[in-house]
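Weekly sync, protein design subgroup
Attendees: M.S., D.O., the rotation student, P.L. (late)

Item 1: inverse folding check
M.S. brought a backbone from last month's batch and wanted to see whether the design step gives back something sensible before we order anything. D.O. pointed out we never logged the input encoding, so this time it goes straight into the notes. Structure tokens as presented (174 positions):
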């Protein structure tokens, strides 16, 4: 089973974000920045406001909470933007790149820009089916995500998924 398609930068951003979530790195970055950045901001603000200590504290506290809330709500978008920027710099353009997925008895083969990556079935831990992607979680932490938009029909999508599930089940039984 083989399929060729035009991959977008957004597919790569989604894969990178999913990998960061799987490894716990995204959560770690989010809370590390929160635990260091907000208290540091509060301390600097407290030190530069020329008011008595109680009044300074009453001004700094709401700002620190607002900053923490802003950080928690915007972190994922800011991280995606940073990944997108790096990928555009790496690929040189924002234009789609021709990619190819192939599934066979060996595993999942992905080709792009002259590079081939093969995930053997014994390295695939789990298959996740989301609204936009058919994702293969592999060991060590890695991911291969096939955009569902590339399938010509729901039947073709189901055929790929059932083939992968059968191969995964056979590997688990061995």
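Designed sequence read out in the meeting:
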């Amino acid at each position: 089973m083989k399929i060729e398609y035009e991959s977008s930068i957004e597919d790569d951003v989604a894969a990178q974000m999913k990998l960061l979530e799987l490894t716990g790195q995204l959560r770690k970055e989010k809370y590390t920045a929160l635990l260091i950045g907000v208290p540091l901001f509060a301390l600097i603000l407290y030190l530069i406001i020329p008011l008595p200590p109680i009044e300074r504290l009453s001004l700094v506290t709401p700002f620190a909470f607002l900053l923490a809330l802003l950080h928690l709500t915007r972190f994922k978008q800011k991280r995606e933007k940073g990944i997108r920027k790096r990928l555009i710099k790496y690929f040189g353009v924002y234009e789609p790149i021709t990619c190819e997925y192939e599934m066979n008895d060996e595993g999942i083969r992905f080709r792009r820009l002259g590079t081939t990556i093969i995930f053997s079935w014994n390295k695939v831990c789990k298959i996740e089916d989301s609204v936009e992607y058919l994702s293969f979680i592999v060991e060590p932490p890695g991911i291969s995500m096939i955009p569902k938009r590339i399938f010509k029909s729901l039947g073709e999508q189901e055929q790929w998924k059932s083939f992968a599930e059968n191969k995964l089940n056979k590997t688990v039984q061995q």
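Discussion: The helical segments are 9-23, 25-48, 53-91, 154-173. The mean pLDDT is 89.
Action: P.L. to compare against the previous round before Friday.
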